[in-house]
Amino acid sequence: MPLVVEKLNHVYGKGTPFETMALEDIDLTVADGEFLGLIGPTGSGKSTLIQHLNGLLKPTSGRVLVDGVDLNEKGAGREARRKVGLVFQFPEYQLFEETVFADVAFGPKNLGLGETEIKERVEDALTAVGLKPRELGERSPFALSGGQMRRVALAGVLAMRPSVLVLDEPTSGLDPRGREEILGYVAGLHRKKGLTVVLVSHNMEDVARLVSRVVVLQRGRITMDGPTRDIFQRGAELKEIGLDVPPVTGVLQELAGRGIPVATRALTVEEAADEVLRVMGRKGAPSQGGANQDDRRRREVGRA
């Protein structure tokens, strides 16, 4: 189910002294099954843009198509919110029911589904985010850890069984373990179920290892759009607007700038370590430890 944005403009406070152009002339297509990263400095329009994708905001001009339906049409936004699930930053703040089960069931109940279907959806959604329905279903969501609360909030969106999942800074405020868990479940949903995912993030490392395409917003306009590796090769341009490249990519670009002949397209620690070992002339060398020694060196490079 593709998402299509055509000539989208959005103005806050139109006709008032506080009129602000938040989005200008946005053209964007998100293909079925794609994992897209949306990045940009604070105030660039990222959150405004994603709220148009399921009809929470209406364009000042232009249009958004969800599965071919123009969201400007009467009633189209409600249907779009079934197909495009939006997870806001700090979604656990939106939990409100007395039990985990009831919170996750809230959306399906509003669809008018039967009790059996609701129960199935709740259990499937909780399982998809690594929570056990029988153990946690009757507990208060407010008695859980921060990471668990966020997973419950994500499960509430998944219980609607959307075709597209849009996440606005899904790991904000989480510790490293919670961050890895949330991103792991999202990646698994994309890989196993073919879910289309749009990820808004300031963490370039997360973007680099998860998404296949990056869109860059600046002052309400799309300034870059392309494969992830290609976008992060434009490090100087990204830094000019207050963004950065993944740490390992930055290290390689720094080495290349100093005349060391490394390729700079690596996005992960493992790829960067392989590239450094290649330049050192050691990768695959059959002497003194062979592959095991290479693995040890790669880990040492990654820690460095």
Quick summary:
The protein is α/β, with parallel strands linked by helices and 304 residues long. It is built from 13 helices and ten strands. A hairpin with a 2-residue loop joins β9 and β10.
What brief labels describe this structure?
alpha/beta; Rossmann fold; 43% helix
Which secondary structure elements does this structure contain, and how are they paired or packed?
Layout: E1 3-12, E2 20-30, E3 35-39, H1 46-52, E4 61-66, E5 69-70, H2 76-83, E6 84-87, H3 100-110, H4 115-128, H5 133-136, H6 146-158, E7 164-168, H7 176-193, E8 196-200, H8 204-210, E9 213-218, E10 221-227, H9 228-232, H10 235-240, H11 247-257, H12 269-280, H13 290-303
Parallel strand pairs: 3-8, 3-9, 6-7, 7-8
Antiparallel strand pairs: 1-2, 1-4, 4-5, 9-10
CATH third-tier fold name of the largest domain: Rossmann fold
Number of strands: 10
| Rg (C-alpha, Å) | 22 Å
What's the CATH first level of the largest domain?
Alpha Beta
Q: What's the main sheet like?
A: 6 strands, mixed
Number of helices: 13
Helix content: 40-55%
Q: What's the name of the CATH homologous superfamily of the largest domain?
A: P-loop containing nucleotide triphosphate hydrolases
Arrangement of strands in the largest sheet: 6-7-8-3-9-10
Alpha-beta classification: alpha/beta
